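Section 5: illustrative case.
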């Protein structure tokens, strides 16, 4: 087991006030976070951006946010360099990945993953799948856990059909794969813009719907589950079968839809690792990335165009 020399200060991306991308600054003198007993210190190798990162930065969750200044970042992949006294399974040198915030909106960590080091509860992490590099692993946790928990809460199971709204995005591309490979869907339909239809088919979508040309809610076919990853709840409820479920992760959720916000849990990742290691479920990393650490502002700007395919990942982190 190699011993790691841990500095007292680190480089991190920081914002001291809420606002647009212009509030993001680099700081080379941020204190390395202290460890609680149930946490490990992770040397960050790669981190991914999620829409929640820029929404949080604008201040819309400030009533329940941690105090400023904030180091953003939920998703991490890296190496354990120190363990707290109550840590049971992870050890120094382990390669891990996870979503570091148990509750996405309730007091997320002040010191997130867009830094050289981050402190994370052991229960939120899993060992990195052996066949994935750190960039691929960093792009998974929040999105794959959201996809999995949403399908589970919708009561999705083998033989059911599903319509995924926003199939080319970070969450949608994983909902498609999990529905097919893990849950055993009978049919997977998904929406995207014209240029992404072939990408949907490459993920195994049976019916790829161009939302610029047709309205999914006007199709004669209805689905057992509709998974809305884009905020079209009012329309989503018109595409579900009687007695079916509509999962909404953003925007309004008129009945029978329900909205849920992920609770991060390393057990989900452990359950999915075999599907990742056999290649049945693949991380989708946006081809414009990974973005190096000094281009994080560009990465955020790109993410906020809503044009990304899969995940926007930051690597290397110094």
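Designed sequence:
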């Amino acid at each position: 087991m190699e011993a790691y020399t841990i500095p007292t200060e680190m480089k991190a991306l920081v914002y001291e006030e809420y606002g647009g991308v212009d509030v993001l600054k680099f700081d080379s003198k941020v204190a390395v976070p202290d460890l609680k007993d149930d946490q490990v210190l992770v040397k960050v190798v790669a981190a991914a951006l999620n829409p929640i990162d820029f929404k949080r930065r604008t201040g819309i969750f400030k009533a329940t946010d941690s105090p400023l200044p904030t180091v953003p970042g939920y998703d991490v992949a890296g190496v354990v360099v120190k363990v707290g006294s109550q840590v049971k399974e992870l050890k120094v040198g382990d390669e891990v990945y996870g979503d570091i915030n148990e509750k996405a909106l309730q007091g997320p960590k002040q010191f997130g993953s867009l830094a050289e080091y981050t402190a994370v509860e052991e229960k939120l992490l899993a060992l990195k799948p052996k066949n994935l590099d750190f960039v691929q692993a960093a792009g998974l946790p929040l999105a794959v856990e959201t996809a999995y928990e949403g399908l589970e809460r919708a009561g999705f199971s083998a033989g059911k059909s599903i319509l995924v709204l926003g199939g080319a995005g970070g969450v949608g591309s994983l909902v498609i794969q999990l529905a097919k490979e893990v849950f055993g869907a009978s049919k997977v339909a998904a929406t995207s813009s014209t240029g992404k239809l072939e990408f949907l088919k490459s993920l195994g979508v049976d019916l790829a719907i161009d939302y610029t040309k047709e309205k999914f809610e006007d199709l004669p076919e209805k689905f057992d589950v509709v998974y809305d990853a884009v905020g079209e709840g009012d329309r989503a409820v018109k595409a579900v079968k009687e007695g079916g479920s509509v999962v909404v992760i953003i925007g309004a959720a008129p009945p029978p839809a329900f909205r849920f916000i992920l609770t991060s849990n390393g057990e989900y990742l452990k359950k999915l690792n075999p599907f990742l290691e056999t290649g049945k479920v693949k991380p989708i990393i946006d081809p414009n990335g990974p973005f190096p650490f000094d281009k994080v502002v560009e990465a955020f700007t790109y993410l906020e165009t809503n044009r990304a395919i899969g995940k926007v990942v930051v690597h290397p982190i110094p």
